[in-house]
Design goal:
about 120 residues; mainly alpha; Ribonuclease iii, N-terminal Endonuclease Domain, Chain A; 6 helices; about 80% helix
Length: about 120
């Protein structure tokens, strides 16, 4: 499957996990939910999370390869962040899309680590 399609799917999956997490924490006002969600779903936050997962050796070599393929996919530059941060975030989303389609158990493990 096209890496940008995986990133597109991964973005939606990630957003769902984050929303469920925040609602599970008892947040119930939409403005509050939105403010807290942006701490997780921005390209800067996603790039930072990816860097932590890699630094902690949490991702397998295969998962890092998937991230690299997503990171290197030709995409449009975001107006809100630099290209390197945007590409890292795209790589992270690609991994999540891949795991959603191929290994939901591992996706849950990754998201538990992300939400620590």
């Amino acid at each position: 499957m096209n890496n940008l399609v995986l990133a597109y799917l991964g973005d939606a999956i990630y957003e769902l996990y984050i929303r469920e997490h925040l609602i599970g924490k008892g947040l119930c006002k939409v403005k509050e939910l939105q403010r807290e969600a942006t701490k997780y779903v921005s390209a800067v936050a996603q790039a930072s999370i990816l860097e932590r997962l890699i630094a902690d050796n949490f991702l397998s070599e295969n998962e890092i390869d998937i991230v690299k393929r997503g990171r290197n996919a030709h995409s449009h530059q975001s107006k809100s962040t630099d290209i390197i941060t945007y590409k890292k975030a795209t790589g992270f989303e690609t991994l999540l899309g891949h795991l959603y389609l191929n290994d939901r158990e591992r996706l849950d493990e990754v998201m538990l680590e992300v939400l620590k």
